Amino acid sequence: DVKSYRKVQEDDDADGARVGGNEKFTNRPDNTAFTQQRLPAWQPILSAGIVIPGFVLIGLAFIGVGVALFVTSRSIQVLERDYTGDESGTPCASCANSNVQNCICTLNITVETLFKGPVFFYYGLSNYFQNYRRYGTSKDDNQLYGVLNPSDNCAPYAYNSNNQPIVPCGSIANSMFNDTFKLYQTVNGTRQEVSLDGKGIAWWTDYNIKYRNPTNNPLKDAFNGSNSGLFYRNFLINPIYWSKPAYELDTSDPSNNGFVNQDFLVWMRRAALPDFRKLYRRISQDKYPDGLPAGNYSLEITYNYRVYRFSGKKKVVFSNVSWMGGKNEFLGIAYLVVGSMCVFMSIVMLIVYAKFKFPDEE
Amino acid sequence: MTWKSPVALVREALQGQRAREKDLRSLMSNLPYEGLEKGKQPNRYFPSNAIKTTKYSLLLFIPMNLYEQFHRLANIYFVGLAILNFIPVVNAFQPEVALIPICIILSLTALKDAWEDFRRYQSDKKLNNTPCFIYSRKEKQFVERRWKDVRVGDFVKVVCNETIPADLLLLYTSDPNGVCLIETANLDGETNLKQRTAVSGNPEFEPESFNGIVVCEKPNNNLNHFKCYMWVSNTQKVGAGIESLLLRGCTVRNTDHAVGFVVYAGHETKSMLNNSGPRYKRSKLERRLNIDVFFCFILLFAMCLIGALGHFIWLYALPGVPPYLVPPANGHLDSPNLSSFYMFFTMIILLQILIPISLYVSIELVKIGQIFLITNDIDLYDEETDSRIQCKALNITEDLGQIEYIFSDKTGTLTENKMVFRRCSIMGTDRTGSSSRCQKIDPYLEFFLALTICNTVVVSMTNNPLETLSSLVKNTGNILKCCKRKPKRNRTFTMDSDDQFQPSVKMEEPGTSGLQPCSLHAASLHDKHPLTSDNLRYEAESPDEAALVYATKAYGFTLLARTPDSVTVRLPSGEVLVFEVLDTLTFDSNRKRMSVLVRHPITKEYVLYTKGADYAIMELLGTPYAGIGNEKNIAAVTQRHLDCYAKEGLRTLCIAKKVVSEAVYKHWLVERQRALTAIDNREVLIMDTAVQLETNLTLLGATGIEDRLQENVPDTIMALRQAGIKVWVLTGDKPETAVNIGYACRLLEDEDLITCRAILDCTLEEVRRYNSDPRNVDTTLNISLVIDGRTLTMALSPDLRGDFVDLAKHCRSVLCCRVTPLQKSRVVKVIREKLKVMTLAVGDGANDVNMIQAADIGIGISGQEGMQAVMASDFAISRFKHLKKLLLVHGHWCYTRLANMIIYFFYKNVAYVNLLFWYQFFCGFSGSTMIDYWLLIFFNLFFTSLPPIMFGIMDRDISAEMLLGVPELYKTGQGEGDYRFTTFWVSILDAFYQSLVCFFIPYFVYQDSDIDMFTFGTPLNTTALFTILLHLSIEIKSWVIMLGSVLFYFIVTLAYSATCVTCNPPSNPYWVLQNQMADPMFYLICILSTVVALLPRYTFHVLRNSIALSPLIEAKHLDRLDPSMREEWMKEWRSYRGGGQVQRSTLSTPPSPTLENPVDIFSESLAVSDIMGDDFTLNVFGQ
């Protein structure tokens, strides 16, 4: 009767809860999956048996990707030439040692086989810290957007000693790379200029959206004090290191002049690492549809940029590109290594699984 | 308003200060001064009844809240950093951006505080505007006012069922005896009624004629104590104590109306002084956490130092001034020394998130979530009382998962504290030998009269009995029913001992009329059924008393009424006797007894009835008991019965009486009066007078009251023990009672070696020898220690303490008997401090409050003994069995969740910050970032903060069923637990490894390419996000949130990159992510980096889960099986892990081999096991 009594009582309670539940048990917690922590959840236990397929799949996929990357990377041709001239005997040694403006030196290049197009022509600098913090802040985006007043960010390259505003202001613009290159192909003893294409080497968004010239026409008017929108009714000064004002960067093409000059845009996009290359030109696809044919070439360099102050190096790079960008063997190899490691791990896991499997994994 | 000079104001303020600080206050009636300005009021120095519990005011909220928040060290650090941002020479970020995180955190906390304060304000307002009646001289009557208008010195009328607005000295009640009943449930949760008596006892009380001066003590928070006297006229002084004080917050019951004089108002009332707000405890995990935060500081310092040094070397190695080295605005470059000094601070700003800024807020959020889930657990809800578990301490949830020692009270904690009268021994029959009992009813009469009179039970007539009472009655019926099978055995038992025990046996079954003792007239039984008696409801201060009164009622001795001056009893014969009560010597824990002095209505004798603990009474028996006569025999037999009751686990009480001569009484009365009016040392004096009278007692008999075990107590204790928790029971009961309860609740086991009151050294030596014995390496000795209060006092003395703790360490369970509340807390403190373990104390009564406060976690059981334990506790539960789920499931979950979350936070920040740190090696240690500032801040604040928080609240590593089924799993949290020194450093090292991978794989890919800074940073940031989130996926289940986080990241970053054309120089992330997402290399890099970063951790987990199976992982495996298979596996597992501890079908028989008890003459073991048999079946079917 003890049992039955308890049973009856329980039934009573249950009835009470059902009928008068709202009044009698006001404090009763809600019996929901959330409050009772019974929400369904999926969680695999990472044990050998479960991860073997994962490891095999990842391993095989990685090896596949790795092979593809590696093969692609091997097919990319790269031609690099240092022209710093810090060692005597090198073609540009004379220019490096003199302080002559527009010193010209020539680099002879031999292309053994056809350099498949499209061929990209880069200049490279090393030990150059474009990512230096102060350097990075030393520019004025608004100025380059067409509002010519330099901001304080640009100091001390915002105004010259006569308190005349500098345009474009700041250290990045001031230190713009100003070597120029001309490529000649030697055909039967005569130099024939290889036409280079400078269009579209900067980011589309930079050229079309982020950077904007003042609306004056001609552009020069914006700089000579007749720009009524400018607070300072002064002449605008070109950056200290520049030999010509911004509106003369490319006099031949108004759409490549001033702040939207492609070379300027490329320079203004700061490199992530101290050894970098920047795109200079493309070999014109109109004239050289297949790329650079084999033969002898000479590169005429107008040597202006000094690198000895930071023991830097300068180089030129010719390269063609694939879907994965420039030549890079690291990624392919890394994929191969990691992929084989995964496959190896899966074998280890198989052994572990055979030895230590848990019944629920069957 | 008249103008007052400042001097007068200051003087006034000083006077007020002095008046409030004085030890004694003289209060006068306000009535003669009614309508006068404030400066003329006699009681103007004392605060009014309006209360204000809010912390802030509307105007000063912001400064005050900020001031509060800056008491936290972490906040100061973050604000310091924010200020550092504004110093021009070091600014690495835009200062305004750097302020965002700290502002968000401060404002979140402020919002929370404001909301809490607003709720307090609302409740204050409601309370202050509650109506009440104050006497007004103008209107010559009580007029309705608000609570806030009540002032000290007013006369306030309270009517039935109304709440008392301030502390009132009771002057008049509608009751002719000057009695007022109050319910103190609001104050201490005790629902029984308490009786208060008017001071003057003057039935015609007129507020206006009141011209006395009330002298009372300074306000204090003691709810059970109040000292005051009143000058009725210039010469006559009347004393009053707590029995005349109506406390604010109590409710008047059963009394039409009462009038009181306000002695304390507002914040000076006892209930307000007791209101100390939520408790703040720091959990063990948080203490560890702070150490690790300190390590992070060291790490941060080291990294900043490396940064500064690197910058110095880099500058020093430059041959000239390169074009990228920009001088400050003044055009002059700083020296390498100076700029590397600045660089140190720049680095601090750059790497500041190494100290997890959001961790503290996240922990608080997680704990709120955890507490929400705990309080919403339906298994921790008790239908009978309609109460959930209450979490009073908000920040120690994770401590629940680390408990190593539980200290439990017995009565009301392990047992129901619902007393049922089971046995009694009446010596009367002893005298008459074997003569017919029917003729000699005197001893029974006397005995039951004593039981009926000697208590403080109040009778209340009501047609609406409380829920609890009806259930009590039900349960009583239940007990009585289930005892039906017993008499046979009991009879054999009594036959063995003595024939005259018959009545006491029969008394156990009053419901079965056939066994009616002939001594009590048969008719009397029918008397107890009349409707009038059925409506009687007894309000007792202790459940024992109620049980006794209900029992006597069952025997026909019905307590009809009790007033301060009289007790009305109806005898079995139907005769109604009114005893004049001359005095009540109330119970106190020193005397351990109470007495009532009455004047017999027929014999006119002065009789003192005393009831108390057996040893307290036995010592006081009259001289005849010391001799060799009949009396001594009676005492010895009674003692034997008492011991035998105790062995059955019954609570014993002795009843005695004494006839006092008139002369003695008169003499005593004088002293008593003096003691009552004394204002100093009153308690001592009153106790002394009581002791004076309670001598030379005549033994009437003894009673045995059963206190049933609560449901599932043995099960719970078993589970707790299997969970590696040592359970100590500290009780005030006799050792025999305690040992038997110990067996019943499976605290002690058959095979246990019980060491009882033994010599400490010997035992310890033995235990050590056993443990050092090479043969016994694998077996652990099951020792249980039973120790009584006196021995405990010695054991806790400084020179023996070490040995005692040493011995206790070896014991599986310890039972301390006859311990005082102070000893309870001392035991807890000693164990906690000496063994450096996590302790939990659980209790239900006021005597457990010390213990509850001494332990790391105090748990109060809201039971029969009021709410004092609950108010002092960190968690309040309603049944002992809830402890099982609270600790084994919630404790485990909360702990693992929080521990893993904290470690994850550290890991996350280190992994992310290190990306920036590695970049410093490639940017001349200049403090550059390759990730946009906004994204940097968002990364921590939004992209990666939600998953760990959800993880901390919701994750379940193992199902509740599994944790309950295999309590051993709890052991993983004990001691160091999951959150160890090594786990912290392993995760930091892992963070370093992962950040290296996340940085250098993109680095090698983009080396010597035309990549720009923020394009380079994008895959880094993305990889870090993937890695950090997938890292969590090893543990987490809320994949939805993680996917949400990833989506959120991409959406926010894409939107930001698309809109930010010239904003946020120098990063200018315009179209960067879009550009990257169009490049297959981006995905290839992200996938490779993520896989390589996580490969070691996953491999480690896989191998650990496959090779070195920890119990937790095994349990996880089992969790995946379907329920029936799981059951089987669990059983199998338990049988090889748990050893023989799982055999729960057999019942323990309680022979106690080394128990030094001389009373082993009758083999009552059968009876005992029988009792427990019932309990056990009850439990089984009660589930």
Detailed description of the structure:
The complex is a heterodimer of chains A (362) and B (1183). With 362 residues, chain A is α+β, with helices and mostly antiparallel strands. Chain A has 2 domains: 50-76 and 326-362; 77-320, no CATH class. Helix content of chain A is 30%, strand content 18%. In chain A, helix 3 runs antiparallel to helix 10. Among the domains of chain B are: 150-274, Calcium-transporting ATPase, cytoplasmic transduction domain A; 370-416 and 710-769 and 780-889, 3-Layer(aba) Sandwich (Rossmann fold), CATH 3.40.50.1000; 420-434 and 442-462 and 534-625 and 633-706, Calcium-transporting ATPase, cytoplasmic domain N, CATH 3.40.1110; 891-1120, no CATH class. Chain B is built from 41 helices and 32 strands. In chain B, strand 27, helix 24 and strand 28 form a beta-alpha-beta unit. Residues 428-440, 462-533, 775-779 and 1138-1183 of chain B have low confidence and may be disordered. Chain A: This is Cell cycle control protein. Chain A: The chain crosses the membrane at residues 45-71, 333-354. Chain A: Residues 1-30 are annotated as: Disordered. Chain A: It is found in: Membrane.
